[in-house]
UniProtKB/TrEMBL annotation:
Domain of life, per lineage: Eukaryota
Family: Belongs to the 3-beta-HSD family.
Protein name, as recorded: 3-beta hydroxysteroid dehydrogenase/isomerase domain-containing protein
InterPro entries for the chain: 3Beta_OHSteriod_DH/Estase, Lipid_A_modif_metabolic_enz, NAD(P)-bd_dom_sf
Every 3-beta hydroxysteroid dehydrogenase/isomerase domain range: 10-282
Keyword field contains Nucleotidyltransferase: no
A Gene Ontology BP annotation from the UniProt entry: steroid biosynthetic process
TM region(s), chain numbering: none
Source species: Talaromyces atroroseus
Alphabetical UniProt keywords: Oxidoreductase
Amino acid sequence: MSPSKLGPVLVTGGNGFVAYHIIAKILAEEPDCDIHSLDVNVDRNRHPNANVHYHRADLASAADVERVMHIAQPVTIFHTASPEFSDAPVSAYHNIIVDGSRHVLNAAVKVGTVRALVNTSTSGVINDNHTDMIDATEEMPILRFPQQKRIYCLAKAEAEEAIQAANRNGGHDDQGVLTCAIRPCLVFGEHDVGALGKMIAVARKGMSRFQMGNGKNPYDFVYAGNLADAHLLAAHALLDAWGKPRPTDPTVRVDGECFNISNDDPWFFWDFQRAVASETGNPVRPEDIVAIPTWLGLAMGLVSEWVVWAISRGTRTPNMTREGIRFSTLIRTHNITKAKRVLGYRPKVGMQEGIQRSVRWFMEQVNA
């Protein structure tokens, strides 16, 4: 049986790097699909395809969202929009992630064409960024303040819960919008100028020999193309379930559910950094590795935060922060059994190939 048609499609944050990969997968699968991107910056990560339409709009504005929703008349929504968590002002997290999600939900109900909404959440909603997360499952509780102190994760948790609660119009209508949440781990891939871009910058400076902690903390990553596959699998499953009663068997349900997504191949965090460095032509020999104790790294992060705050009066974000140090020294692994069983997800691109593809793209941009 041929897969259900996705289009027309609306992608919020459609010019972000994850959305770029989602749109590429849609075009590969459904070349004539009518795709609409809603983003505040429509000049980056564009697809040169006449079927992809870019709309400059602000998720924090209900009127903007309704305008684009009315133009797109989507059947499927991929809700990927999010501010860059390291650079955005605190207010942006609530305005874009929380209010923006409510605006998307309200506009989707008003337009009346939407059947499926796949929300890009984060595995960070179940982790406090202080504690190791080992083989985490979707059943782990979402953390709230004071256990969770990261503003980004608090906002993502609130948005995820609102979108999940809206599933089937609050659970009362088989014809309502069906929703689910994708919870990726650390994403990397072509067009990732955030986390991967910073790693490549470190490699080019010859600084990849430095690591925080003992380097023995396994970490789950996911290549963006694989993450895009997971989004499309979820969307097809939601569309296939639309108009039917929700299954009573929770082990096969998609709508109203959340799914961990990874490459199913944990690496030591700092081995990943060094693999990136090697692909840039800056390999690090084992005997050249300099391990900085975690306690010292945290102290360095504190000093860095205070110095940058004092110089910029709070307008700049330091390159080294205590949060970043903790992030790179914790164990963060995820169980993706549910995504495999329910969505049929399998990562098609392995870690090494994903790193090679990603770094190659960056190097081509530099040499272009």
